[in-house]
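Please check this protein record:
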Amino acid sequence: MFSTDPNLPAAPAPQDLSFDVTEADFRQTVLERSLEVPVLLDCWAPWCGPCRNLKPLLEKLVQAYGGRFVLAKLNTDEAPQISAALQIRSIPLVVLFVGGRPVDQFMGAQPEGQIRQFLDKHLGPQVSEAEQIRLEAAEAPDAETAEALLREALSYEPDNAAVLLDLAERVVARGDLDEAEQVLQAVPEAERKDRHAGLLKRIELARNRPQGDPAALAARIAANGKDFEARFALAAIRVYEGDFNAAFDELLEVVLRDKAEWREKARLQLVEWFDACPDPATVSRGRRYLGMYLN
């Protein structure tokens, strides 16, 4: 079907996102290359007006997608065997190769939006540079590196809400509450949802150190498991310290042991702290036990 000549010209270098392809090198530059990265094959001819309109758009998109696919351009007038193998009846024809075989195609000079939809169907939605760096920050080996990466991401998209919220969380964790507030102020108002409110609540909690001696409060609770006042005070200290798990445990004990006013007070406080807790697993555990104890 396609050329298998072992004396093929060298394939384009990996960094070349757009290149011409011929019958002689089709196997190497399209079929074999598509085992490593999707190859979009643009079938065109010099006399084809729509082809001339489509070509610069495809070249723009391959650069915009930053290596998530490569563009191979085939002059069908010079490639009759490939044209026959692909059963080309009309051009421009654009064929996407993945894993060594054609998986989809479109015909004609489509608008940019439709071509992006075609690509995203197979490649997934395009991830911005800022988002790529944000994901890298989530896997960083230490907090300092993660924070540096998030600041780098903001240099690409200063109003990226996800990056700003991640950075604010890192800054809260190291205790710079004023800077954390400034970061949160930069979040676009339309993006200020539950996580934004939760971080503001954490800042508020961190600024107001509760009164009481944790050891003395723990001793009171050990002597009287229904000393709910002591449990609330110790829970507030644990939240201030960032130990939401321990705080939730204290108030869950109140919910379990009381059936009246203290129980409702503990429920309301837990719901408020669930929104401020940065650990989804801790929140999930707290909500699960709260639901069990209330039923």
